[in-house]
UniProtKB/TrEMBL annotation:
Pfam families: MPAB_Lcp_cat (PF09995)
Compositionally biased tracts (Basic and acidic residues): 290-304
Source species of the chain: Dactylosporangium maewongense
Protein name: Oxygenase MpaB family protein
Domain ER-bound oxygenase mpaB/mpaB'/Rubber oxygenase catalytic residue range list: 55-243
Length: 304
């Protein structure tokens, strides 16, 4: 079973992480670690809300207050479309048009966009280093970098480093310079914790809220103004995830069918992707009451 469990890893090692990054990322995120990538990307997005310039815009649109589940589902499914079908496939290009149209409405700083992109690369890597059922290979790490760099170029994000370590250093330096408390951080953070807790039965939601806080590092807790969870719960959360990884290693055979691009129990789009296109996703137009300082005044740049 162990030898068979490594079947996809052997396939990854036969590929080139620069040339074949889409196939490697599709295998890693869809066959090997679909649950882990989903959880890691949830927390990656959560991490971006520690930046006041990012959370202030999200707070001003009201999306997190009024439609947090739909905004979560739109983001998750659009990124899954790119990974499942390829960023230059018909569905991938359609998903990119939706993403670019949504972002193009707002005056978003390029460094903020670069930072969000960087979290998609490195937060899953860090998560899997701690909680994966096996270590990521160097091919998988580099493929994730090349995949999201190409996505970023098609989103017209400028000055994305061409080197893996340079982009990681940008992320680290950006967080050191920009993570700080703001009231907008606190509000968006509370909305997001509430969303995560809503996925559990009502009696379990108070514990779920504590459990989310147990997964946040000290800089995130400080930026949101959250009190740390009890130490015992933080330790238990980590131990539970490591126990899950051991069970996956021992009990689950390799997946024959990728989990990417399928979400049959989706709360907003039941049975996705059946009956849906990427164009059905995405945020509505900015509210009429939105302060003009958040709106882009010049035409959005065309993606490369």
């Amino acid at each position: 079973m162990v030898a068979d469990r490594m079947r996809w890893r052997r396939r990854i090692e036969q590929l080139d992480p620069a040339r074949d990054h889409e196939e490697i990322y599709r295998i890693s995120a869809g066959h090997e670690f679909p649950w882990d990538y989903t959880r890691a990307l949830e927390f990656a997005l959560f991490r971006t809300y520690c930046v006041p310039s990012i959370s202030a815009l999200l707070d001003a649109t009201g999306e997190f207050r009024d439609r947090p589940q739909r905004r979560y589902d739109d983001t998750q499914l659009l990124m899954a479309e790119l990974a499942a079908h390829g960023y230059d496939s018909p569905r991938g290009r359609e998903a990119l048009r939706v993403i670019n149209r949504a972002h193009g409405r707002y005056a978003i700083d390029n460094d903020d966009m670069r930072y969000v992109l960087a979290t998609f690369v490195y937060d899953p890597i860090d998560w899997l280093d701690r909680f994966g059922w096996r270590p990521l290979t160097e091919h998988e790490r580099l493929a994730a970098f090349h995949f999201y760099r190409q996505v970023g170029l098609r989103m017209a994000i400028r000055d994305i480093p061409s080197d893996f370590e340079e982009f990681r250093a940008f992320k680290r330096d950006y967080e050191a310079a920009n993570f700080r408390y703001s009231d907008a951080n606190a509000r968006v953070g509370q909305y997001t914790v509430g969303l995560f807790a809503s996925w559990f039965p009502a009696p379990l939601r108070p514990m779920a809220r504590l459990g989310v806080r147990a997964m946040l590092d000290p800089p995130m807790l400080a930026a949101f103004g959250f009190r740390p969870a009890p130490r015992w719960l933080t330790a238990l959360s980590g131990a539970t995830l490591r126990a899950r990884a051991a069970a996956v290693w021992l009990l689950l055979p390799p997946r024959r069918v990728s989990k990417l691009g399928t979400s049959p129990r989706n709360r907003t789009y039941p049975g996705y992707p059946t009956g849906y296109r990427p164009a059905d996703l995405g945020a509505p137009a900015p509210p009429a009451s939105l302060d003009e300082r958040w709106l882009r005044r010049d035409p959005a740049p065309e993606p490369q």
